[in-house]
Amino acid sequence: MLIVDRFEGEYAVCEDSETQRTHNIPKVLLPKGLREGDCVREVAGEYVIDGAETLRRRQKARELLEKLY
User: Fold this and answer.
1) SS3 13
2) pLDDT (tens digit per residue) in 15-48
3) 44-61 core/surface letters (b: 16 or more CB in 10 A; e: else)
4) Please, what is the end-to-end C-alpha distance for the chain in angstroms?
5) Taking the C-alpha atoms of 23, 27, 32 and 35 in order, what is their torsion angle to the nearest 10 degrees?
6) Who's near 13: CB < 8 A, 6+ residues apart?
7) 56-65 long-range contacts, Cβ below 8 Å, gap at least 24?
8) Residues 36, 12: contact at Cβ < 8 Å?
9) pTM above 0.90?
10) Could you give the residue ranges of the DSSP H alpha helices within 1-69?
11) Which is the most buried residue in 15, 19, 55, 60, by most CB within 10 A?
12) How many other β-carbons are positioned within 10 Å of the β-carbon of residue 14?
């Protein structure tokens, strides 16, 4: 699974959740509406947003932030 870290020009810089390596993927290959922090999987040669995993990771991050305050 890839996690969108940021956008640089025509590329999305994504981190592989298993290897922690980054990959520059052309934005034209990614789904429209993709945002930083979204989780993306490659399915049948296409990238798709994993909405459930994105939501789970955002909720976990929110919980960790709330513990700080």
Assistant:
1) strand
2) 999 999 999 999 999 999 999 999 999 999 999 9
3) eeebebbeebbeebeeee
4) 31
5) 50
6) 4, 5, 6, 7, 22, 23, 24
7) 57/3
8) no
9) no
10) 51-68
11) 15
12) 23
Task: Name residue, tokens 């592989």.
Answer: 16
Total length of the chain: 69
CA 15 – CA 1 distance, rounded (Å)? 8
Identity at 66, one-letter amino acid code: E
CB 22, CB 5: distance < 8 Å: yes
Dist. CA 27–CA 65, nearest whole Å = 30
Strand 22-26 and strand 11-16: the pairing is: antiparallel
State the virtual CA torsion across 64, 54, 31, 8 in degrees, nearest 10: 20
According to DSSP, residue 42 is labeled E
Q: Which two tokens stand for residue 28?
A: 């034209």
